[in-house]
Amino acid sequence: MDFATIKGFKDILPEEVGTWQRLESEARRIFRSFGFREIKPPLLEKTELFTRSIGEETDIVSKEMYSFTDSKGRGLTLRPEATASVVRAYIQHRLYQKNPVQKLFTIGPMFRHERPQKGRFRQFHQIDAEIIGDSGPLSDAEIIVMAMSLVEAFGLSGLSLQINSLGCPKCRPGFKEKLKSYLSQKAIFLCGDCQRRALTNPLRVFDCKVEGCKQVVAEAPSILDFICSDCEKHFKALQKHLDSSEVSFALNHMLVRGLDYYTRTTFEIQTEELGSQNAVVGGGRYDGLCKQLGGPDHPAIGFALGMERLVALMGKDGTSESSGPDLFLAALGEKAQERVFQWANDLRKAGFCVEIEYDPSKSLKAQMKRADRLGARLVLMVGENELSSGKGILRDMVAKTQKEVGLENLPANIKELMG
Ligand code: HAM
User: Is residue 363 part of a domain?
Assistant: First the structure.
């Protein structure tokens, strides 16, 4: 087909939509219980917003953004993630003036020009949550507990929470120097990209998937041995809060994450079931970002859950969307069809899910067949005789029984019959 979807982009078909809806509504329910409010930033932003926040040296900015110049010469980008946009909105609308601590979430598509593979797409969807305006370890614990509640709400097993601390501007430079000198000794074992990264942004080497680089970083110094006493206190307090919330976790000093804005806590919820794309949730603290984007010096922490990955783990369970209509209205003849159309509208206003037949020349048998295929629970049959008697025939498609129903006040009569 000439106009098939492009590589890395896919349709979410009606059979799958039920699972997506369940995921979104569960997320909204959980977020509400934690006091989060929804925000909907645009999908297109100035390119600079992302280069400044995510970092020039990251894979996302250096090779994965869908960027273009518009007719006015402005550099624009389809958002590769939501955090930068949420923080931009927080600054632009001075959300902190009403309440310095803002708990915000957003759900929607993101775009990254990555090599598509299992669990990795070029358009994918995130459920993203951010707490902006608090620096304490309790907000780290709260956001992690919320992320865990989200994945646990779907009964998923085999997930592990990994946490790390990347330190702060006080202690990270010391670690970076140590790492740089370690990597310079091992330069011949590193891939070309990492030889460059080792000089410009050595933490990025931890992210590399090339086997030689993975072996080098396996023996690299651990940031946890370098963080300052404030960062250590913060990280220890987080662990205590997680323990008391009965959330188990593993320390992973190599968890640096693929975005440059992180400070202190980083975390991922990983699965073993999706091959190399093992992170279902990724997040962390980004205390410097708000100021870096021209806003007040407000600390923040957040996470994003990859919806495609969670849906893949949940399997196809298209409950709500695939269930059939409550009622199918079968009309025989044009006169009946005209009335049936009005009743359908009345019944829909009363809350029923109703289907009608568009072709008045279709036989009753053909209409019943269609009702059956749609999975209709009841079929109301109306022809000339029923119109003049004021009573239609209602067939229960499950029990396979029929009874008469008064056509006047149809919604009320159907409601009564359905109990
Ligand atoms: P991220 O790790 O780049 O973090 O993405 C978060 C999650 O989005 C990943 O764990 C994964 O589940 C999903 N994801 C990322 N890329 C793809 C892809 N190409 N295909 C399918 N799923 C994908 C962020 O985006 C940060 N903004 C998270 C954050 C929020 N940090 C603080 N606040």
Answer: yes
Identify whether residues 33 and 131 lie together within a single domain.
yes
CA distance 25 to 31: 10
Residue nearest to atom 14 of ligand 1 (CA): 306
- Ligand 1: residues with CB < 6 A are 81-83, 112, 114, 119-121, 124, 126, 128, 130, 258-259, 279-284, 286, 302-304, 306, 308-309
Q: What is the pLDDT of residue 365?
A: 95
**Contact indicator for 32, 143 with CB cutoff of 8 Å:** no
List, for residues 33-82, the tens digit of each pLDDT value.
Answer: 999 999 999 999 999 999 999 999 889 999 999 999 999 999 999 999 99
Phi, psi of 367 (to 5 degrees): -70, -40
Q: How far is the CA of 67 from the centre of ligand 1 (A)?
A: 19
Tell whether 204 is covered by a domain. Answer: no
Backbone angles phi, psi at 67, to 5 degrees: -115, 150
Q: What is the CATH number of the domain that holds 377?
A: 3.40.50.800
Q: Are residues 343 and 299 in the same domain?
A: no
Residues 237 and 363 in one domain: no
Query: 216 in a domain, yes or no?
Result: no
For the chain, report the end-to-end CA distance as a whole number of angstroms: 49
How many domains is the chain built from?
2
Out of 318, 337, 370, a domain closes at 318
Other C-beta atoms closer than 10 Å to the C-beta of 392 total 28
Quote the ligand 1 centre to 307 CA distance (angstroms): 10
Distances (CA, A) of 327 to 21, 350, 371, 412: 23, 12, 8, 14
Instruction: Output the pTM of the full model.
Output: 0.90
What beta strand segments (E) does 133-243 contain? Answer: 159-165
Q: What CATH number did the domain enclosing 146 receive? A: 3.30.930.10
Å from CA of 101 to ligand 1 middle? 23
**Residues 6+ away with beta carbon under 8 Å from 238:** 137, 140, 141, 144, 163, 265
pLDDT in tens, 254-304: 999 989 999 999 999 999 888 888 899 999 999 999 999 999 999 999 999
Q: How far is the C-alpha of 260 from the C-alpha of 55, rounded, in Å?
A: 5
Phi, psi of 396 (to 5 degrees): -85, 115
Which amino acid residue places its CA nearest to atom 25 of ligand 1? Answer: 81
Contact 329, 356 (CB under 8 A): yes
Give Cα separations from 385 to 110, 331, 410 (angstroms): 57, 11, 17
- C-alpha gyration radius of the chain: 28
